[in-house]
Specification:
CATH superfamily of the largest domain: Alpha/Beta hydrolase fold, catalytic domain
CATH architecture of the largest domain: 3-Layer(aba) Sandwich
Structural class: alpha/beta
CATH topology of the largest domain: Rossmann fold
Shape: elongated
Number of strands: 20
Largest sheet: 10 strands, mixed
Helix content: 25-40%
Number of helices: 23
CATH class of the largest domain: Alpha Beta
Distance between the termini: 34 Å
Radius of gyration: 29 Å
Length: about 700
């Protein structure tokens, strides 16, 4: 759509009014009520809230479609894919030793010992070994941490001729900032391409490694969290001859509503519980729906709100049927009527500091992975060719594709006609501002974008101005960038740029309303997507529409974001070619370290209000690698020395790589800058404004 300059429509009378009146936040200067060529915007209420609701419905529909597509597929579930998405990457020790210590060895029908098996460097599986005098089978029983002290199933199995290993899972206590231990470890691991589920599955498999030579039938069983680990372990390792899953099996379409440590990136695209079950069959699989634990992380406790699902019986039956199974119990697992037995409680008091040790081991392993991540990213980017600009751009295409498909997650929906709706927001002697709503996707999966367009006064007929898209940060709004609120952060940079002659647009991003956007993140992750899976197409549609206006230059559209807007500046321009440059303000740092370090108080692992971890950035894209996706387009960092995002040395370390790429390797050092200024987490509006004038070819206002 081609639109004419709004000033060309003004009458002589209106022009006279413009000359004689000056005002701020005054609608009487004469601008039309809506931008010419657009429909009127008539929505009432909070459009930002409406946008979050729209995104929520969009993602629920995408989940529904992904599940339908998966369920209708005739493809055999991919065992290697399952291993990848739960982070099974580390090579286990071959033929590990089994270490035992007696804690209860009397003349009853079974003894109870502590066992330990090394999994890989720094990680061990530990727990109870319950061993009868005579046994013909081995079962690894994985109890939910909440029921370990009360479970009787391992002892019943031992009384019926099974040697039983009971490995200990990470518990749900809250040692750090009211975040459960399971979620705390999940956070670092997720950023590094690992998962607490994967760690605990590896522990189960290490026990089997230690027993591989005894030729006894090995089964796996568990309840609650242990049911999940049992099922995943059985699906991955065919040495497991039978499995008994208690109080876990059911439809996983609402996995996003479960605790954070259940979040597996892209799970629903490939696996429901029925698909995982099919990886176990035709081996013996018993689905026991007898007990579903009631575990909940409520709002306001530091971590993500979530609960273990308590499925309706008909839903469980449906998933069992979908897997081609029927419900069973311990008798079905044993293959015989159980022997009457009064089991003794497990001596959990003997475990000592095992829980703390297990927690520390995984934490230390994650931190070792963090130290190695830079080398992994260097290897990942080894096909980047800097011998010429042409070869560089060609060599980065596969990386940009990988970033879009595997890291951000791009939807394949068809873009709608933008159908712009606008209404006058503000008019001053310097500019006119409009609220704008445009459609992004149409049809069943409708999605829209919202923002504020600010048009400087004095645009001549036929003149095409450069555009700066000004992106606010966490819990912000477009109004934050125009000076209506939070001036101390934003310095009204959107309207200040308009005063200098730039057309500006301030989009509403979806990092707003705390747990509401956190819910969006987990819904998106369930199908291999992120919040940027929504924001990238929004920005694509926004920039396409902006470039179609008669008074804008489609080849001069820049991105400038503060804080979470700076986070966006690293992720959106790589995938939206309409952006000719990008400025990252108050965010640029060593991002993987920022998310995965448990040693630094700068790290997001300590914060309860953010859910920003992206799957496996550790081995793929830190901020240098993202900047390489923006290159050879101009790129700038704006950095206050007292910004609490990260210390100066971390920012400098990561930016040095960017500078080396642009200047030393590509010979375009004039296209990148960093401005250090004495100040906090804020727009500085000095070096960045010069950068915009230079690279958008816009002269300094006299």
């Amino acid at each position: 759509m081609s639109l004419k300059s709004p000033l060309s429509k003004c009458s002589n009378v209106i022009l006279l009014v413009l000359i004689t009146l000056t005002a701020t936040n005054n609608h009487s200067l004469g601008a039309p009520k809506e931008l010419p060529g657009t429909a009127p915007l008539s929505w009432n209420g909070d459009i930002a809230s409406r946008l979050i609701d729209n995104c929520d419905q969009f993602l629920l529909k995408q989940i529904e479609q992904a599940v339908k597509k998966r369920n209708s597929s005739s493809e055999i579930p991919d065992r290697e894919k399952l291993k990848t998405i739960i982070g099974i990457r580390d090579k286990r020790i071959q033929k590990p030793k089994l270490y035992l210590s007696d804690i209860e060895n009397n003349k009853s029908e079974y003894s109870i010992q502590l066992f330990k098996v090394q999994v890989f460097e720094g990680i061990s599986a530990e727990g109870f070994l319950i061993q009868p005098k005579n046994f013909t089978e081995t079962t690894i029983f994985i109890s939910d941490p909440e029921s370990l002290a009360t479970t009787k199933n391992p002892q019943i199995l031992a009384a019926n001729g099974h040697r039983v290993f009971v490995p200990i899972l990470i518990d749900r206590k809250t040692r750090h900032n009211k975040i459960t231990n399971r979620e705390f470890l999940y956070r670092s691991a997720f950023e590094l391409g690992r998962h607490i589920i994967g760690y605990e599955v590896q522990k189960v498999l290490a026990i089997i490694d230690a027993l591989d030579s005894d030729n006894l039938s090995i089964g796996v069983a568990g309840n609650g969290e242990g049911g999940l680990i049992s099922m995943y372990a059985s699906a991955i390792d065919e040495r497991i001859k039978k499995a008994w899953i208690i109080g876990h099996f059911g439809p996983r379409e609402r996995v996003w509503d479960e605790p954070a440590y259940r979040n597996v990136f892209g799970l629903l695209n490939h696996f429901g519980d029925a698909e995982i079950a099919r990886l176990i069959l035709p081996r013996k699989l018993i689905i026991d729906p007898s007990k579903y634990l009631k575990i909940e992380t409520p709002k306001g406790t530091g971590g993500k709100p979530g609960k273990l699902p308590s499925f309706k019986s008909e839903d469980v039956k449906y998933e069992i049927k979908r897997a081609g199974l029927s419900a069973g119990d311990i008798n079905d697992y044993l293959g015989l009527q159980i022997k009457a037995h009064e089991p003794r409680a497990l001596p959990v008091e003997q475990l000592g500091d095992l829980q703390q040790r297990a927690f520390d081991e995984i934490d230390r392993h994650n931190q070792r992975l963090l130290t190695k991540s830079a080398e992994l990213r260097r290897q990942f980017l080894s096909k980047m060719d800097t011998s010429s600009l042409e070869k560089f751009e060609q060599s980065m295409k596969p990386y940009r594709k990988y970033f879009g498909e595997e890291v951000i997650g791009l939807f394949e929906d068809k873009y709608a006609n933008p159908n712009p709706r606008t209404r006058l927001l503000n008019e001053t002697e310097f500019f006119t501002s409009y609220e704008v709503v445009i459609d992004v996707f149409g049809g069943l999966n409708d999605l829209f974008a919202y923002g504020i367009l600010t048009i400087p006064k004095g645009i001549k007929n036929g003149e095409q101005r450069p555009v700066v898209v000004c992106q606010h940060g966490l819990e912000g709004r477009p109004q934050s960038t125009i000076g209506e609120k939070e001036y101390h952060y934003y310095k009204a940079f959107s309207t200040e740029l308009a005063k200098l002659g730039f057309v500006t647009f301030a989009p509403q991003n979806i990092y707003i309303f705390q747990d509401r956007f956190r819910g969006l993140q987990f819904k998106a992750n369930a199908i291999g997507k992120t919040l940027f899976s929504i924001m990238v197409p929004q920005h694509q549609q926004i920039t396409d529409w902006l470039g179609s206006l008669d008074f804008t230059d489609k080849n001069r559209i820049a991105f400038y974001g503060l804080s979470y807007g700076g986070k966006s500046a690293m992720r959106i321009p790589p995938l939206v070619n309409n952006y000719c440059l990008s400025i990252c303000s108050a965010d640029f740092n060593e991002w993987v370290w920022k998310n995965a370090s448990t040693l630094s108080n700068y790290s997001y692992v300590w914060t309860g209000e953010y859910e920003i971890f992206e799957w496996d950035l550790g081995s793929t894209f830190n901020y240098f690698e993202m900047a390489a996706l923006i290159a050879p387009r101009p790129f700038m960092v704006e950095r206050g020395h007292f910004d609490g995002v990260a210390p100066d040395e971390k920012v400098a370390h990561e930016y040095a790589k960017v500078r080396n790429l642009y200047s030393a390797k590509l010979g375009i050092g004039d296209r990148t800058e960093i401005e250090w200024f004495v100040g906090p987490h804020t727009i500085n509006a000095k070096g960045t404004f010069k950068f915009l004038r230079k690279h958008l070819n816009w002269p300094t206002k006299k």
